[in-house]
Prior knowledge:
alpha/beta
Amino acid sequence: MRKAFRVLFSFLLVLASLGVYLSNKVMFLKRKADEEIFTREKEAGHLRPEEYEALPKREVSIPSSFGYPLKAVLVEPHDTNRYIIIAHGVTQSKTNSVKYMNLFLERGFNAVIYDHRRHGESGGKTTSYGHYEKFDLKSVVDWLKEEKGSDLFLGIHGESMGAATLLLYAGIIEDGADFYVADCPFSDFSEQLAYRVKAEVKLLPTRILLPIAGLFVRIRDKYSLSDVSPISVIENIQNPILFIHSRKDDFILPSMTEALFEQKKGPKKLYMAENGLHAQSYSQNRVEYEKVLDEFLEEYVFVNDRDLHGDFSMSPDV
Length: 318
């Protein structure tokens, strides 16, 4: 009897240790230092410090519905009601969002860049890959609409986890923006995690590791991995979405974006970039990226805005 108890105790101890280890890997994925991101973006030509510093902007702290601050920068070089919110990917910060912000500033938008929970300067203890982040995105949207008025014309751009976050926000909470750009999202977090575990962990099969990880994430962070599934809610999004992915992405497979595109009803556009790995569609295909973005805006976004607010010019001072 004692031997059986010791065996059971040892098994439960191993299970608990494995569960804590795996859930730690999910909840506390190591973040990149902002100095590292700044240097990378500057060397790539995405961030020109003098130009960024010269922009009319102010730092703001937006309260999350979970009680911590979301650190953001409101950038307003134009006299316009058109705004874009940029949501960065996992391990990154709002510094990574500057390159996408610049694209929209050049097209006459003002912008908000912000740090996700547990990233950059924002609060929050864990990363949840869009589950809690979608509520934080709503907090940013609500703050901006309260600050700038109900006639706001709004877009949201997201990269990787940021793209999954905006799809979850629009598909579950509210279709609260006039358009979306989803750059290299995953379609389902459980599938994405299974793919990464299979690629990185060889000792145990995913059918053993994933249920353990999922159980301990549910116990410790109060959500189910199955809840983080953009493809299960994509049909709820009525407003236009531009989907972007690199064909050579081996971190989040391009087939995930293709599946999201197929499931999306209503106005949509798909751009599969020929060059670059994960989250490199813009940096490795700049001309094509901007061309597709302009086509999307003209075909699906500005036409709707013209119907509401009259004719639109590509001049940045509308």
